[in-house]
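re: ur msg from earlier - yeah i can do the magnesium ion complex, just paste it... oh wait u already did. ok heres what im feeding in:
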Amino acid sequence: MPTKQNHINIVVITIAIILLLAALVIILDSFPDLQQSTWIVALGIFASITSPIAVYEFLIKRSPNQDEIKGKSDSSEIRNGQTLEIAAGQHGTVMQLDLRGQTVQGSQPNIGSVQGSQFSIGTVNFSPLTKPAPLAVPWQIPLPPKDFTGRSEDLGEIQDDFEQGATITGLRGMGGIGKTALALVLAQRLKDRFPDGQLFINLKGIGENPLTPADAMAQVIRAYFGSDARMPESEAEIAGLYRSVLAGKRTLLLLDNAASREQVEPLLPSEGCSVLVTSRNKFALPGLKSWDLDPLSPADARELLLAIAPRIDSHADKLAKLCAFLPITLKAAAYLLAETTDLTPAKYVEELSDERTRLMQLGRAGEDLDAEACFMLSYRRLPTETARIFRLLSVFLSDFDAQAEEAICQDEGHRHLSELLRGSLVEYQRSSQEGEGRYHLHDLMRLFAAGRLEEEGGEAARNDAQQRHAEYFSYLPLQSFMKRGTLWAG
Ligand SMILES: Nc1ncnc2c1ncn2[C@@H]1O[C@H](COP(=O)(O)OP(=O)(O)OP(=O)(O)O)[C@@H](O)[C@H]1O
Ligand SMILES: [Mg+2]
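and the outut:
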């Protein structure tokens, strides 16, 4: 694109050529003898060609070259008294000759200006933050599992919600229940609504090193400007750039595996974009509509098993129940049977009947489908006392209320129970009547807690908790009687 400075240069050069030619005509006209000299004519032609070039060079060296520098990725020269603007998103190193003629080098902030000093010539090497040509529309979200089964009700309701303008949707639930799989299916179905891209960011909320909001923002910026795009140093600038990149776009962000409100809230983008968040942890956010996922229905669980390993055949219902209808374990069992041809479904069902070894048997299909390892990720992050209470909860063979838990696990004000509920290690069913609801552990989570109690709590802790459990429930009818005046009141 021609710049204003270029236009001025062209006009000045044209005037210079005209003046030189006019001077030549006047000289030749005034001295007719000279017209006979071929030397003089040659000199005239030579002067009219070379002088404009000299004038051009002179002008280039004198003129400030700000326009050239903005947005360029190579180096540019600054000369005496010149100021070079450094645009937002550029970063550079300034090299100058000092008064003794030695080269000195200094890093340049990513926005500002450089002033050429009086006796030096400097070079600004720019490495731009963003590439001049942005990448094509990013489609980062992986395809959903080919054998995705069921969840039609959840899908229908969440899609309806989108139709009605929901922009922040949360999928919550225990490890392995299928949050990510469902989010991938939703993203695929909603694809046409987001012509400016679909981004997938694993926030690593359940691991040792969750992503910081700035790290997550940098991933989004790089999705649009390439993986080698340099980030500004301050978090505030990254956040500004993040908002600028998403402004006016219709992009879907899938924030997988989120840790907390603190991690997600800074990432909520401007109007036009939507966010799908998956998390084992329950947290609230302005505008967030959350969905708590249940295990698959018995019919869907059966269908999934048979789709992967038709040889399961008549054992499907029993096997689905032993897998507690959890997608991760259903898949583990089905893949094991599909790949281990000398293991009969009947034999495997028999092996799984032993509660003490069930989780281990279900983990045989491989690391990515190991429910025990999946639960362990949540367990490892629990504070010591909350982990102790979690282990003790394995003495409840069915659902229970907060009062029973407080007495049996010695958890004052069921503080730790609430913490476990927030982390999806415990489920909660609100009571239909006014009053408290009931808690329970998913079948396989209870087996996991029992395993931990066996390994870490020791026999004594388990015996004490079982003793308190027996005492609590043997006195319960009496307490009820004292409260209500009858032993059988509902
Ligand atoms: N409805 C489904 N149909 C078929 N496979 C499923 C379904 N839901 C989940 N899966 C499979 O079960 C496994 C666990 O699912 P997923 O990874 O989505 O669980 P998650 O809830 O996201 O777990 P985490 O908390 O560990 O991230 C995956 O292999 C996934 O492909
Ligand atoms: Mg997941």
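cool cool. The pocket of adenosine-5'-triphosphate (ligand 1) is lined by residues 145, 147-151, 173, 175-181, 257, 278, 280, 304, 327-328, 331, 374 (CB under 6 Å). ping me if u need the other ligands too
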